[in-house]
Amino acid sequence: MAAQEMVDHKYVYDFAEGNKDLKDLLGGKGANLAEMTNLGLPVPPGFTITTEACKAYLATGQEPDGLAGQIAAHLEALEREMGRRLGDPDDPLLVSVRSGAKFSMPGMMETVLNVGLNDRSVVGLSAQAGGNDRFAWDSYRRLIQMFGKTVCDVPGEEFEHALDEAKRAKGTTDDLGLDADDLRGLVDAYKKIFAKHTGREFPQEPREQLDLAIRAVFESWNAERAVVYRRQERIPADLGTAVNVVAMVFGNLGPDSGTGVAFTRDPSSGAQGIYGDYLANAQGEDVVAGIRNTVPLQELERIDKTSYDELLSYMARLEEHYKDLCDIEFTIERGKLWMLQTRVGKRTAAAAFVIAGQLVDEGLIDLDEALHRVNGAQLAQLMFPRFRLDHEFEPVAKGVGASPGAASGKAVFSSDRAVELAGQGESVILVRRETNPDDLNGMIAAKGILTSRGGKTSHAAVVARGMGKTCVSGADELDVNVPQRRFTVAGQTVNEGDVISVDGTTGKVYLGEVPVMPSEVVQYFEGTLDPEATDDPLVRAVHRIMTHADQRRRLAVRTNADTAEDAARARRFGAGGIGLCRTEHMFLGDRRELVERLILARTDDEREAALGTLLPLQRADFVEIFRAMDGLPVTVRLIDPPLHEFLPPLEQLAVDVAVAQERGEDVAKEEALLAAVRRMHEENPMLGLRGVRLGLVIPGLFAMQVRAITEAAVTVVREGGSACPEIMVPLVGAVQELETVRSEAEKIIAEVVGDSGVEVLIGTMIEVPRAALTAGQIAEAAEFFSFGTNDLTQMGWGFSRDDVEAAFFWRYLELGIFGISPFESIDTEGVGRLVRIAAEEGRAARPGLKLGVCGEHGGDPDSVHFFHSVGLDYVSCSPFRVPVARLEAGRAAVETAGSDSR
Ligand code: PEP
Ligand code: MG
Q: What is the pTM of this model?
């Protein structure tokens, strides 16, 4: 039975059998080829081998049962449809074998073109092409080269070298200078190279070529560059790739043929219109590889108006069908247009917002869908600073603004050097003539990428946009000399290590470091750019989508702010309160001395005197913050870190004291301080005398803070304002701790509040696992919980917050133990489970218990979705993250509503 099922398992789909929703199974390329086929667009016939077949192959090292037979059956059908047989000596069918995973991984995996050519069918191909021998032999040498390199690991340089040799012998520098005889000779040379490296002749049997090429595509899923790319893009490692076997069409049959890439809108700015590149008399990958300079797609109208008009009509059709920006690859074979690929196109962050807004205007999508189509990571990118340009900075070159942003750094000319210098903390700009998949590590390490060749669709541009990395491509005034590690432009030479600046929005390149200024989007959030008055389409789109997110979100968004300035900025950014005001910074600077007095106090009187001096200072801090927040809730956390953090470091102090003693100076005070530091020294301070434990050990410390907070609130109310304080106790693990602090605090509050009408809530952080697990008890003594997910992660995993990221997280990420640091994005299964339990048990004990989060995760997009799903009331994050959290909270609400109605 099981064996029968395996035999029957369907591993191969004809294009007519699939559709765009089958990406898991057919990969993005296969699913969309099927969709276009079904829409009646001119797609060369073919079939797709599923990702399941790939996974089975990768698991066992051999093709699953039944696959070979299914390929044979589909190949036969293809041959019937095309009226040609694979590798037929007289009239051969040729196919391309193309990878295509669920998520696009540009250039990361393999493709083999012209499969089916051999010593005999090359003659038939020439006849098919009207006696074009040159074309036939050129196609054959391309097959041996691609097949040798990708399927059999023959070093690519050897083929390159032989090609150069042939050109040299002919006295030409251009491939087109080689005639049919030269190419025939080159095929012989290539075959020798192939035999030398593989120990066998180039396979003449077409089906063997096909099977080996399919295998190579399967295996390319695990090629190192693909693995690196997946890690960077957070694409799961176990998806596998599909393989598309497609009847070849040729863009290199002469001037009436060509190949190109098109976007239905500008993927960089989102502007409406037709964008793309066209290359006459060229085959598939030449455009993307940036090998020859392309012409703008608009030129095609002049070159071949019929195909151009046809292409435009298909593009309009696809946009309407996908209701989104599409990108397209096409080939024209002797005046006949073929659609080779489409997909919902990658775009910059700015284009994502602008296009979402346009599609709403065009009635193709609603605002909920627009909100769904943008994300917090994109918004965060739009908040990056821009270059501040005045007359001192003249660009030295201008290329294509391929991926926006502003980046300055030292010029480097190789991926390895980029990685090396970035590892030493340097900012670098990777400069290349063009990039290829081997440059991936360097691109990840660099702040920006600059190339002298290639357009918006070059490898550099596509990959940089995907990563959100600044990129200028095709700055062709640059003469890049990679071996000598320098480029020249406008008579000037830039050597490795010289600082340059690149603007990925305008495409301009500057020498030296250009200063930066806030982006338009930040100006909008700051309130200095009126979204109704500006004609900047990006600001208008951001405003519109943010407004909708605010209407839709259930989660409130607060901010973590310790100063009035931060509080005011966060309010402008849309914060609805302060979720965490850490009070410890208020003990730093010139107040350190007061804390020292507190720590060194030997009597109650001395301690009270020290606290008495701190009280008015703290009160003044809180008055300013309450004023800035003007009646919005403000959660003030009582002091949390171990007190010795306010004292000088032990080693330093010990040396200073010893030196001073040696000199015979009076060191009584320093000695006392040193004794205190020694007394308070802890092996594990993060797990030591901090948080509520401090409050219980040092009499009067928390009381002073509670008094300062309450007095500040009363002051603001008495001057006509309003204040909404929430006092938060850190590091609670047992309800008894909280009860003790609470009963003392309540007395002070009652005394200070008097008839002012001020209401003060008392709550706790939930950041110790025990607190999460006893939340039902703790809720009896707390009016609110705020999850301190930094400590909850630290104590949940047993990971020292300050040490582990540098020490070993890289290895954990490499091994896939986690896909992202749990300090960055909440570990939903473990730490998140503690949050869920505490939320449920806390609310069960005290309905209406207010729940929030104030750890770093409060501003992380994925975590915001999780906090929405567990029913928290608010997230709190740093001021610059507030817009991101607002947007993601809106998206989370829309997505939940969408899945409820499904
Ligand atoms: C936390 O632990 O998540 C938290 C917000 O507190 P802190 O980072 O100050 O320890
Ligand atoms: Mg904490």
A: 0.82
